[in-house]
Amino acid sequence: MFSFFMSGFAGAKPEAGLTSSLFGIIIIMASVFTIFTPFIILIIAGFGFYLLAGFFSKGGSLSHTITAAGWGMIPLAVYEALQIPIFLAFLPAMSLTISPEFFILMNNSSSAGSLDKEAMAHMVTFSQSYYTFTMALAVLHILAWLCCAWFWIPAVRNSCNVSHRHAVMIVLIPMILFLAVSFGPVLITGGHGL
Questions:
Q1: Where are the domains of the chain?
Q2: Are 27 and 44 within 8 A, CB to CB?
Q3: At what angle do helices 16-53 and 2-12 cross, to 10 degrees?
């Protein structure tokens, strides 16, 4: 959807070329950062599981826990691969309508700070296909995380020397909290609360 915003900025102000270039650099940097995101998730998950297991057992190995967490992330890799054909299937039907006032207000530095989320939501309208796409990805992402939990529970049990019940608590409680905070608003609003 980035190209829609850039064309709007280009039409809103003569010096929007600089803004477009800056946004382009930000997008590239964000894309490069996403390459490292799975490794960051892996380290946080493995270290978190190991710390939580310390409340129930003094045994286990941090390196084995991180390795087990890595193998358990295979469903997330499958989900990432599935996003490509899903996006390509929905792309022809997705559209975005942006009010010209949005770009005028965004380019006016004094007005941009006072613009609230609800006012912006009325200026940017996504097609129904976009909301369907968002909901489909949210549901698949939640399923991928639950599949990871299915792998992580025995991995934590074996690598941290805890009981099955404790392994379930160590994995599911943080995961359910994460999913509720991350995807709860999207599921409640049907993708409209983006």
A1: 37-189
A2: no
A3: 150
Q: What is the pLDDT of residues 131-152, one digit of tens each?
A: 888 888 888 988 999 998 998 8
Query: 116 or 176: which carries more pLDDT confidence?
Result: 176
DSSP letter at 73? Answer: T
Strand, coil or helix: 143? helix
Helices and strands of the chain, counted as H and E runs: 9, 2
With CA atoms as reference, report the closest residue to 103 among 37, 23, 174: 23
Q: Where are the beta strands (DSSP E) in 72-173?
A: 96-98, 124-126
Burial of 186 (0-12, 13-18, 19+ CB in 10 A): buried
User: Residue 124 corresponds to which amino acid?
Assistant: V
End-to-end Cα separation, the chain, in angstroms: 13
Q: How far apart are CA 51 and CA 156, in angstroms?
A: 11
Angle at 96 (CA atoms; ends 103, 16), nearest 5 degrees: 30
Q: Chain centroid to CA 175: how far? A: 14
Torsion sign (Cα): 47, 53, 58, 59: negative
Query: What average pLDDT score do residues 19-23 get?
Result: 62
The residue type of 28 is I
Q: Which residues lie across from 125 on neighbouring strands?
A: 97
